[in-house]
Amino acid sequence: MNWLQDLLTNPDSIAHIVALYSFVIAAGVLLGKIKVFGISLGVTFVLFVGILAGHFGFTGNASILSFIQDFGLILFVFCIGLQVGPSFFSSFKKGGISMNLIAVGIVALNIAIALIMYYALQGRVEIPMMVGVLCGAVTNTPGLGAANEALSQLDYSGPEIAMGYACAYPLGVIGIILSMIVIRYICRVDMGKEAADIQRGEEANPHLKPFIVSLEVQNEALVGKNLSQVQKFLARDFVCSRIIQDGEIHIPNANTTLHVGDKMYIVCAEDDSEAIAAFIGPQVDMDWEDLKQQDKTMVSRRILVTQPNINGKTLGELHFSSMYGVNVTRVNRSGMDLFASRQLTLQVGDRVMVVGPQDAIERVAHLLGNQLKRLDHPNIVTIFVGILCGILFGSLPIAIPGMPTPVKLGLAGGPLIISILIGRFGYKVKLVTYTTMSANLMLREIGIVLFLASVGLKAGGNFVQTVVEGDGLLYVGIGFLITFIPLLVMGMVARWYYKLNYFTLMGLIAGSNTDPPALAYANQTAGNDAPAVGYSTVYPLAMFLRILTAQLLILLMAG
């Protein structure tokens, strides 16, 4: 039975370490699915199973645990960056600025209360442990990873800060949801009115999504003018994908000349449709599908962009109408239809709606790729080139006035920033950043469970002693104050000053703490998409700030 004893107890055995991680992760994920009062801890339960295993003496070689911890963290933050990159900069546009300001206020107050408690306790809780409590209170695991990585730069030899994180985390999840409930009663929120306001806002807000309208040319000033001239005069983007002239359907291009009585199939932004109709002519009822069936040469088809060399090119650069005799009416990206303006940049994974003759569409399909199997292959080169650049960037010393040593963004901050930039601008340097959601989620989940298991196994040896004999209950109390007070203060500011809808505010609160369980509660309460909108608007910046500030607090205060 020596082999079994070796498998269970030898910390230098690779088989022991793999078996230990497998057990901790599997048990943690399964237990994390258990809900108490509708709330579950998710994969974070892996940390607690790791702590339990470490407490009973199951551990591994310290160097191997550290490697797995760091590699898991890098995978997680890099995939997070790739996911939020495309929306990171757009979240600062009009409408999102005030919400992001509120999120920044929440992050700043979290840090302020942590520092107030640190000075009020006169150093009883060291800064590294206080940062661990802070990360647990705001339920941000990547921040804990960044803080741990920063401590490794300082040769820290104190207690594992994951113990503070583990003490504060459970009440952090509850505190976030509790703050939503308290704000609702303090601000006397009428749930029915909030839902009606969301509904009215959706009806009154014509987003830049494709809108289809059929028009008959009645403006005699347009006779003899071509489509290009009409677009320049109107100064509004629209696509005329089909036109009926003298009873026959044609695929128009920029040089197609208009005549009174022509019937046009136009795709435009909804808020431009009235101006276009007022200029060209009245709307008419047309059954274009029936006409398309009568004209067997005319077809419409969605084509999948899979050719890497198309990545980053605009629709205007591809000259679909002049070179191929087809028109692109809209582009579907990640489930959202986008208006096909000439300036729209194509990316691998886009689905392009094309209208034209069958043979021309086949040529366009060949140009764009249209091979689904290509998307099933992960872009490993982009991921590891990005990780390499992120590590190099994170290793650069940044001199800050007043700091005795230069600051480094480290293994968490460097890959995060580089992955955000690649996710947003990668196509400009011909990097294919498309990754299926399932592949991205798989890498993220593998990364975070490896990180959490490692942290738990390393912290488990002294955890019970810290909680029972040490300051465990103090960490819980500090964590609750860090969680609750900023959300209450900024929540009331959002309601009373910014007049933010309550359902959107619930999503903002969950997003500012990067907390999926709180978002699930908000979605269940609201019954609409408003919480998801608030969550996604502030999530990119909040995640970035949580990771960066945790690291900077360690480097500035403990350095």
TrEMBL record:
Mind telling me which residue stretches traverse the membrane in this protein?
none
**GO:BP terms for this protein?**
potassium ion transport
Q: Which Pfam families match?
A: Asp-Al_Ex, TrkA_C
Name where it mostly resides.
membrane
Q: Where do the RCK C-terminal domain residues begin and end?
A: 200-282, 286-370
Task: List localization entries.
Answer: Cell membrane
Please identify the protein, giving its name as recorded.
Putative transporter
Membrane-protein topology: Multi-pass membrane protein
Keywords on record: Cell membrane, Membrane, Transmembrane, Transmembrane helix, Transport
Gene Ontology terms for molecular function: monoatomic cation transmembrane transporter activity
Q: Which GO terms describe its cellular component?
A: plasma membrane
Family membership: Belongs to the AAE transporter (TC 2.A.81) family.
Recorded superkingdom: Bacteria
Gene3D superfamilies in UniProt? Regulator of K+ conductance, C-terminal domain (3.30.70.1450)
